[in-house]
Amino acid sequence: MTGNVRGPVVTRGPIRVAVADARQLIAEALGALVTTMDGLKLVEVFDGNEALPAIVARHPDVLLVGIGADPTEAFDLVRSLRRIALNLEIVLVADVVTPELVKFVLDHRLNGLILTTTAPADLAACLDRVASGHAVLPANWHAALANHRDDPIDSLSERQLEVLTLVAEGCSYEEIGARLFISANTVKFHLRAIYMRLGVRNRMAAARMLTEHTGGEATHSPPVMP
């Protein structure tokens, strides 16, 4: 694996690139950038999980998946694509390197992680390497993992931390769903994932771990209904 690379793009047919990001403005901007690059051809810009059948139908060479503040939806899309065993090169595009993103890339055998600070010329070179079967990661990805504290709470996503914080406050599934604008079933799904990551079996044990982690203070100020 390598960091951002420079150099000429290998001569071949255009690499068919698609973009998937629930943030429409960012998705369109990234797609527009791809259209300006030699050797790349924009297939389509997809919007979130609903795009799964369209991605399968169009089958690009490389799929760029945008990562926002809450990576849950993007992660779910990647998992779905991997579950159906679609032969597709997948690269995450994020603002910063985090242990969670690096672990996700490695655990799901993705083709890399590219930062939004990457220069356009470097982006084209990175995608060429990906299309050639290589993987790309930012130069400091090792440091991101090395600096990650050995605390399972740190492995939780922002959304999972929000759910767990409300659990620790004694909220029911329905109350958590209303506060976070998600269904009760989605809350249960997040809790199952939280239990697995923390190695616990119930909400009381999970809440106790959060309390110990924060020293008795909440880690977030959860959103409230207007």
Please characterize this protein's 3D structure.
- This protein has helices at 24-35, 52-58, 72-83, 99-107, 120-131, 141-146, 158-168, 173-180, 184-198, 203-214, and strands at residues 15-20, 40-46, 62-66, 89-94, 113-115.
- With 226 residues, the protein is an alpha/beta fold.
- The protein folds into two domains: 15-146, 3-Layer(aba) Sandwich (Rossmann fold), CATH 3.40.50; 152-214, Orthogonal Bundle (Arc Repressor Mutant, subunit A).
- The protein has a five-stranded parallel beta sheet, with helices on both faces.
- Helix 8 packs across helix 9 (184-198).
- The longest helix is centred in the C-terminal third of the chain and has 15 residues, at 184-198.
- The radius of gyration is 19 Å and the shape is elongated.
- The model is unreliable at 5-11 and 217-226 (pLDDT under 50).
What is this entry, summarized?
The protein is an alpha/beta fold.
Low-confidence segments, given as residue ranges, are 5-11, 217-226
Structural class: alpha/beta
Shape designation? elongated
Beta strand %: 5-15%
- CA radius of gyration is 19 Å
Strand order of the largest sheet: 2-1-3-4-5
Sequence of secondary-structure elements = EHEHEHEHEHHHHHH
Q: State the CATH topology of the largest domain.
A: Rossmann fold
CATH class of the largest domain: Alpha Beta
Note the main sheet.
Answer: 5 strands, parallel
The pLDDT mean sits at 83
The CATH architecture term of the largest domain is 3-Layer(aba) Sandwich
Oligomer: single chain
Fraction of helical residues? 40-55%
Task: For the record, give the distance between the C-alpha atoms at the N and C termini, rounded to a whole number.
Answer: 47 Å
CATH superfamily of the largest domain: Response regulator
Tally of contiguous helical segments? 10
